[in-house]
Design goal:
By secondary structure, the protein is mainly alpha-helical. The protein contains 6 helices and 2 strands; from the N terminus they run αααααββα. Strands 1-2 form a two-stranded antiparallel ribbon. The chain is elongated, with a radius of gyration of 21 Å.
């Protein structure tokens, strides 16, 4: 921990922040900033995947495709909810690209300072 505190001090990071640790939001935004990609796109994609993985309602309704089933009585609707394949492919591609970039960043930051 002393070595981590020393590295953080040289980087101008407050000791309280080192003890607190980084939040997922901070990590995701930092990756977006360092990747040169819009951090908001990365953050939204992460929130969407996280929400679906945790069974939250907002991403289910936002990211799913509602298909009306024929034959429902007048004034009512029968729907099935399907995955939005186009959105799923976009988010999956982004996640794979960011994972690849994350490993590159990890390898780069594990090298001793020059």
């Amino acid at each position: 921990m002393e070595e981590v505190r020393a590295i953080a001090g040289r980087a101008g990071i407050d000791e309280a922040a080192v003890k607190r640790g980084a939040t997922y939001t901070e990590i995701v935004q930092a990756v977006g900033d360092s990747a040169g990609t819009a951090a908001s796109v990365i953050y939204l994609s992460w929130k969407l995947c996280s929400g679906i993985a945790h069974g939250d309602f907002w991403p289910t309704w936002s990211a799913m495709q509602r298909v009306e089933l024929p034959g429902a009585p007048q004034g009512t609707g029968a729907f099935k909810i399907e995955a939005n394949v186009k959105l799923l492919m976009y988010v999956t591609t982004l996640a794979a690209d960011l994972t690849r970039y994350g490993w590159q960043l990890y390898d780069q930051r594990c090298r001793p300072p020059s």
